[in-house]
Amino acid sequence: MRVLLDCDGILSDFHAMYLPVVEKFTGISLTESDVTQFDVLDQIGKKHLQDQVNKHIEWNELCSKIPVLPGAKEALDKLRRFHDVVIVTAPMNTQTWCYERTQWLKREFDIPKSKIVFTHSKYYVGGDVFIDDSLDNCQKWANNQIGRVFLWDRPWNRKRKNMGRIQVIDSWEWVLKELCE
Q: How far is CA 143 from CA 17, 57, 83, 151, 162, in A?
């Protein structure tokens, strides 16, 4: 079975890196639980700062410094013993994001470049299972693919409607029980 996994919010703690950068440029301190929209800058009315934030992330090579979420390494190791796992991730608009993310995935999870797809149109990538923390990505994938769709529960995806066949999950334990037992 081919399992498609998002990276940020599933394997990496993107907000641990991103929210301090947002605070640096906006003066607004947020915790992950404060994030109620997928696009943080849009949520706080500071979308016009996106280019500055992206440049800061690029210049400081912050993609390569994002922490791994607890339990992700062990769970991914087990999942890969049972299934073909492909990382399907949307890159930030920087010159170095894809390179840094590829290196990070290799270093942290031993995932080869051949198992990473960078795209904002994740619904074009076929698989048997799709796991993401973006409701929009899950809805588009569900409308274009026939596999199982799992939305990883996060504060920014709790305003849910039109769920259709999307199932909400909240732990690696659930994923492993559902897909590996």
A: 32, 33, 23, 14, 11
| Token representation of residue 38 | 């997928």
From 18, 26, 20, select the one nearest 47 (Cα to Cα): 26
- What is residue 66's predicted lDDT score, i.e. its pLDDT? 96
How many angstroms separate the CA atoms of 122 and 109, rounded? 21
**Which residues neighbour 18 within 8 Å (Cβ) at sequence distance 6 or greater?**
40, 57
> How does residue 181 score in pLDDT terms, banded at 50, 70 and 90?
confident
Q: What are phi and psi of 150, to 5 degrees?
A: -125, 125
Instruction: Assess contact for 54 and 151: CB atoms under 8 A.
Output: no
Q: What is the pTM of this model?
A: 0.94
- Predicted confidence at residue 91, as pLDDT, reads 95
Residue (of 169, 172, 159, 85) closest to 129 by Cα position? 85
* Under 8 Å between Cβ of 82 and 177: no
Strand, coil or helix: what is 73? helix
Decide if pLDDT at 71 tops 90.
Answer: yes
Give me the domains of the chain, ranges plus CATH numbers.
2-13+67-180 (3.40.50.1000), 14-64 (no CATH)
